[in-house]
Amino acid sequence: MADNSENKSGSGDCGIVIRDDWPGYSLDLFTYPQHYSEDLECVYIPHGVIMDRTERLARNIMDDLGDHDIVVLCVLKGGYQFCADLVERIKTLNRNSSKTLPMSVDFIRLKSYLNDQSTEDLHIIGAENLSVLSGKNVLIVEVIVDTGKTMKTLLNHVEGFRPKMIKVAGLLVKRVPNGPGCLPDYVGFEIPNRFVVGYALDYNEYFRDLNHICVISESGKQKYKV
Ligand code: IMP
Questions:
Q1: Is the pTM of this model over 0.85?
Q2: Does 196 sit in the ligand 1 pocket, CB within 6 Å?
Q3: What confidence category does residue 1 fall into, taking pLDDT thresholds of 50, 70 and 90?
Q4: Might you give the EC number(s) for this enzyme (predicted)?
């Protein structure tokens, strides 16, 4: 499926690198909601693999940040599932390891996509007053970094509240021309430049109710286009 031989780039670790020629798994090998049977091309990253990788990211975060207090800042809507699963695994480590990572959780909502295209206007919708972040160690949790514009804008916004430290966890980073402006500190997977859905990633609000990360089919794009 992937290798991690080209594992370092910039400040962050690319995580599991999924190559451009990865075809994904046939849908028939997995279960998924019947209502999406015409709308998907393949299972790109199975849910179980996402869970296993998230468990390791939680351990890396604990190793680096353990014994500090952190505020987890979940980037909605797409980040809710990854954030919940990551927090759950950090909680497990809190119960079972000698280190401890006290956490509080806050939310911010951003929107920049229409259909499968990034738009210039990025809206910060929720929790605009993040003064609780002042002087705190902040872990931003985002499900996907594509061009990196969203992350850049968000980092500028959060820096304005003068936190002590900011780290970013991103489940997916896309390989796009010129690369994203900034790489997350913790990366689950580096993926080709394809539009993916599921695991709370949407296409015009559809597919959040799908466990695996999948590639949307052309007919799916047409069906849910706005
Ligand atoms: P960026 O600003 O180009 O990095 O875009 C990041 C945002 O675009 C994410 O927070 C997602 O909301 C959305 N996005 C980018 N690529 C995808 C995708 O493949 N599937 C679903 N949403 C995506």
A1: yes
A2: yes
A3: very low
A4: 2.4.2.8
